[in-house]
Design goal:
Layout (H helix, E strand, L loop, with lengths): L4 E3 L7 E3 L5 H15 L7 H5 L1 E4 L12 H22 L7 E4 H6 L7 E2 L5 H7 L18 H4 L2 E5 L6 E5 L4 H7 L11 H12 L4 H11 L2 E4 L3 H6 L1 H7 L6 E3 L24 E5 L4 H11 L3 E6 L10 H4 L3 E5 L5 H11 L4 E4 L13 H11 L4 E6 L14 H8 L1 H8 L14 H24 L3 E6 H7 L10 H11 L10 H15 L9 E7 L2 E7 L16 H4 L16 E3 L5 E3 L2 H14 L2 E6 L11 H5 L3 E6 L6 E4 L8 E7 L4 E6 L9 E6 L6 E4 L7 E7 L4 E6 L4 E6 L6 E5 L3 H4 L8 E7 L4 E6 L8 E7 L9 E7 L2 E7 L4 E6 L8 E6 L21 E4 L5 E7 L4 E6 L3 E6 L6 E5 L5 E7 L3
Length: 915
Amino acid sequence: MSRKTVEGVYGDGTYTDAAYSPLPVECHRLLQHFANASPGFTKDAKAFENVRFYGGDLPLIPGPLKSQALSAVLHAMTGVVGKEICALKGIDAGKIAIDVDKSGLYPATAALVSIDGKTLVQMQKDGTVFKAGKDLDRGVLSKTHMRYRSWAIYPTKDQHVWYQVLGNFDPVRFLRAYGLDADAAVSSRDEAYETIKRTMVKYSAPELELKNMEYGFCGQTCYTPKQWRNTTMGQRLQAHPLVNYRQVKGSQFLPPIPFPVLQDKRPLAGIKVVELARVIAGPAMGAALAALGADVIKVQSPNLSDLQLLSVTFTAGKRTCALDLNVEGDREQLRSLIADADVVIQAFRLRSLERRGFGLEDVLEMANKRGKGIVYIDLNCYGPDGYYAERPGFQQIADAATGCSYVCGKAYGFDEGVSVLPSLPIADMLSGTVGVIDAMLALRDRAIHGGSYHATVALAAVDAVQLDEEVGLYPPEIVKEIQERYKFGPMTPDLHVEELLSVVVGAWAGSTDVLRRSGYMVKFAETAWGNDHEILSPIVDPWAETIAPALPARHRRAGVVIRDCVYNLTLYVVWNSSGAIANVTAHLLTMASKALRAGSKTLVALDIGLSRPAIGESLKHIMAQGEVLRLPARGGPLTSILKNPKFVSLPDGVVYSRKRRRLYYTNMGVPRLNDGTICSVALDGSDPQTVVNSGQIHTPKQLALDTVNEKLYISDREGMKVVRCNLDGSALETLIKSGDVEADGIAEQMRWCVGIVLSQRKGLFYWTQKGPSKGGQGRIFCAPIDSDGPRKPICVLDKLPEPIDLHIDEEANTLYWTDRGELPFGNTFNRLRLDDAGTGPEAQQADPRSGLRHEILVQNFDEAIGLAFDADTETWFVSDLGGAIWTFDKDGGNRTKLFEDKERAFTGIVLVEDS
């Protein structure tokens, strides 16, 4: 090897260039290196002669990693394969020119955006980023300082060993696992960091690893490069190339599929991509494929958290589709999307979509049945195999594992072991680019050889190659020169990716013209988020000489077809004819989506059976009149699911488990006989079962479902307690005992427990104690879900007419309930905005006229009992003992009677989204 390196400059296993090579020159060397190391990529020297790197000699990204060079090289490889695809279509795409300075901006894409002259930080503060589509962010990280610092690097009790903590998108549960309060009253992010650090230093790195794996959290020891290479996981990953795709064995019988030849001359014009991803890496891959001409459909769950700020850049050029893969109707729609797709991007945990029927083998089977091969791309943190392969992970985890964070800490002058994230989301953004190369190579091979293809992209692989000796690191004097040129602010272990982006982009803005250069940014006059919307333009422009006018054709095309609404497009983003990102007919699409979503849902209602004439009838006959029923959520006929006195006897509360596809409901029985039960039945009425037998529970009323841990929480009225059990009835335990049925007697109504709801975010459950009938002494309580000792009830609200069923909106921190007490405040539907702790009303004065601390949204029910909420359509459903089911909007307006039968008496209801 003529090139020389110096070992150990940045710690064990690091290799630093002995002599500096200007950036464009180094890019040519690395292009040859990665081309030779990539199976399926051309080795023809003539192909590389068509590539020109140009721009500044000095990198503009801080630190010793050659991230900017890698960005330029991977984009050049994209151009090379794109040129090959164009040749298959009979198009001469000309030479490939890569601006190395602009390539350095690419990893900062998420922050390189402005709307109405506002920066990304300003848009977050004023809500601009939330203007289009559903708020999937929900303040999951930004709501409190503690939540924000649940993503940071901390010291451990092991000397010189630091650990990347990452609370996933559930910082509340993560911090609670360590005895920390996500909503603790700390004054700053610095105080939050110190608070969390005091806990983390009690653990060794292996102890943190074990605890996080036990709870299913992310987390990673900050290894040196040598330590990573010596791990079994590092060695397994090293066995795979960075560009890692193959034809699936047994698919060679599928015929070649030529590329469509269209007016749009870009290489991927006519190719359909289905993107199943969130955060950065997968969406960046989809955005890059869209820029190359592909029709990209982003499928996103309306129930999974995401970082909303990313939407203003990474939805460019895509159609978006809101589907919940826990719902069979939505799964069927995804199957229809994949039916004619060419590429599927799966960027969740490895094999996690198998449970929903969209794993590799599932999609390959679809391709075999249609007789046309498909490209399936798995993007994850650790790679295709090894003991960490299925572990959750983000870019920061890969940075910590491979040694990138360790090396950055060393380069910035910190003590041994202190680790700092790379300054930009390199692994995320460049993994997306690697995925583009994989997809294009596989599509090229499909056009020539046929078959289906599988590719694996690993965040850790992108990081690890930057530490290879063949790539090398920049020497300290170059790192210092970059710092002196751009004057970057301090980069420390506590900083989040978002903060580091601000440090870097702020330095660029203040010390160079790189953000103001002609052609670097593309501006759109009007978008769904505002006016003068600027984002970074695509890096690869390999067709500048011959077909440049056609390159952005899709970006200017106003080709939106309203029939695509069948895919529930809650936010359909395209580039319109005036060059704008258009939220096409947003209101119409929203309304169409709502109607479609409502049409696929069912209401299950319980008829207690006490409204029918019973004069002279036996108790046995009366008890046999209960029934489990269903009707369409948009209105329609009522049909029976189950009417069998063995399993339905004075039913009261009901929930539905999507995972098990079963209803779980309570039967009150006769209080004095202590014969209440909990039963279960399939949605079609088959396989009824008794889950909790009589004698185990007294008078079960409403119940709540913990979908994560698969547990039922039940209020027992005359039993005067709140209990919890598994879905099969096992592990039945008492959480709250409000009274003693033996000592107090069943008539002690002040202690009767009725409604119940869970708040996983707060770690609390809420229940109602209704008090005497129409007595005005009802109360709502809460207590912790997890507790090492006896739980102490906290009274959230008192002096209520007769509160019954409960619902909580965790995003809005708001409690809702029905009340069957006396008018004017009873027989109502109510709302209470909770304080930050969730244990009392939000700080506000009572209404001077009514004295109420809560809002009455709807009045004049006939004994209001059950309630259900459809988040997709923001619609409430309330049942009453008068035989009616009502519907109204989120704030109580547009009240409509969905169904009425005076010979029925409805108790609990639940909304079911299933077939």
